[in-house]
């Protein structure tokens, strides 16, 4: 059992999973791209490269006078093929052929054959795709610039700050009441400054979320090209009840193929050997790419919904107090008071509104309520003073 899990344990030790103290700067749909999909593709890479799950990737049946290992290596790297006219499931069902696409073939003839060379590159392809799914996260992390993390330094566990002095319990540090007050004041003051959160902050986030949608389409195109044009319709074909899914997969991911091995005979003439190859690797490939089709489609629609939702927040954040109550309740449990509803809806630009939402995702509910109340009161006082100045000027 230990040997069976060894590749995955190695993978786990080299992939960083999210820790509870990590700052959240995106949502679950975004994380499905750079965390879960990337890990899925890394796991698939391990599966197709580990011999202990599928045995030998290819094993060719050869005649006398040929070295089976040499021929198998040759056919693996030079690619195997199936004969097009023999890709008829009916020929296998009625016993005319032993395997789909495998039958009589004359080397050098004009008969159409289908070469299968992709299997050599599957591990590299999957690994490269995993890296590509992380790119938008790297871009957003760089553009975000650690603003949320910098603002939250010193207020970790501040909801439990009830003592005059700082307390420590193991690795957990609970700040003093004064330090908590200073942290809340810092967050409030930074919010009131117009230069801390720039207008580009939400633009960069929306750009990366849009890139996630486009990236899924790109991955579908790349995979389709890699597999010879079968990937776009793979899921639809599998759901098509008019054809057998087993026959479909055997056609696109053949488990038994042909290979022509040439060598010099005793007199120096070229001898061509017709070789039958068992492609154990395709047993895993067919399952991986069948699952990836459904996963990519699922991820595409989720990502598209995420972009539509983001555009909807731009439209509704300054128009609907009820919408704001819903958004901030999901970000941090607890109801907002009536004054906060009005201030958040009428006075906060979208960049501050979005930043405040992500702030709520990263602090405890009680602390977030305290922060938002402080911010609301400060904005209310500022607005009241501006209104008083306007009234004073009118009476001059």
Automatic annotation (TrEMBL):
Keywords of this entry: Cell junction, Cell membrane, Gap junction, Ion channel, Ion transport, Membrane, Transmembrane, Transmembrane helix, Transport
Main location: other
Pfam families for the chain: Innexin
Spans through the membrane: 36-54, 66-84, 118-140, 291-312
Topology of this chain in the membrane: Multi-pass membrane protein
PROSITE patterns named among the record's database cross-references: PANNEXIN
Gene Ontology annotations of biological process type: monoatomic ion transmembrane transport
An annotated GO cellular component: plasma membrane
Entry's localization field: Cell junction, Gap junction; Cell membrane
Keyword Magnesium carried by entry: no
Lineage: superkingdom: Eukaryota
InterPro entries attached to this UniProt entry: Innexin
Function field: Structural component of the gap junctions.
Family: Belongs to the pannexin family.
Protein name, entry field: Innexin
UniProt gene name: inx
